[in-house]
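sanity check this:
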Amino acid sequence: MRIPGLPIISLSIFFTGVLNCGCFTQAKQDEQLSAALTFTAVPAPEWTALLKRNHGWFGGDGIYSIALSGIEKEGAANKDSILIWFSDTLLGDINDSLETGFTMINNSAALLTGGKPDSTAIRFYWNTTTDNHASSLFIPQTPLTQKGEYYWLGDGFVNTERNNAIYIFGYRIKNIPGQAVFGFKQTGNTLIRIPGGDKLSFEHTEQMDIPFFQGENADSIGSFGAGILVNTKRAGAPNADGYLYIYGVRGKNKEVIAARVRPMAIEQFNEWRFWDGRSWTTDIKAIQPIANRASNEMSVTPITGGRYLMVFQKDAIGTQVAVSVGTSPVGPFGPVTDVYDVKDDLKDSPSLFSYNAKAHPVLSQPGELLISYNINSFDFSGDIKKFPHLYRPRFIKLKYE
């Protein structure tokens, strides 16, 4: 069977070299910046409980979140509506057990108001077919889309330089016939645009194929959108340089790669530049990794002292939520630090696994980061009937000082 919600793309997080300078002094300074921080992670049961639901939407993964104002920093949710989106999504009813007739669609969304994990303040969105069956919110419709493809969703942002349009990265996915486990592959990387405005609407979206790596094996060559850093003044970035940093993945070692572009030029793919280990280049073939050993999805967030915190699930589906501290959006990033072991969430079945840890700064409070990670099962069809609430994000709070 296909394991729902486990994207074929992977990200990464460990880097020991020095990108900008080969000197020993710079390396020692980077090490000291990382060592100066201490981390404490604790469960956030109130946020975990928000997505423990019995009717309608009751499960999903791939969770990302943005404030509709475009502000990306901690505390944004207190004054703004927050758009949250998911990839594979379960819809149905749980009473004493999971009722028959539940269904899976490939993506959905939610809108949270008030900034608190309040079940009365969150509304979920998906589409409905003409014969009243649930369907995915986003379905591939680009020129390169092939029959039978569907979307898993990457990170996104509000583009304050383009009328507050919302951009979400999409991965065109296709099932592999006859392959029971991990029976899917990525066939394309896309950009989805949702018009901005006071009233959020998913009815008039536009989609475009991202030209990089077209026709290549995404697992080994790469794709973009697994994480985004909006490093602009309008987004509230503390060290704004006016660029959008877009992180992607490649290879068995789950190497993180990076591109950047001005938000105004997000759709002009010839304006994108790629990190080659020392500078930004127009040659995508020269791109070099900034990290490895991370998870399918991740995040890079500005924190105190001009540093950047990369959050990820160590080694893709390990039990450790981990972080690495960098001195710029492309590093150098220091040693991997384990901050939370999720094993208590896996005790119900030996088939359960965790993946895709990432930070949600807009849902966080100053001085801490709210972090989500997902739970899934290698025996999904069996475990979901025994443990119908298994397939949903869990949350922790990471404090640093």
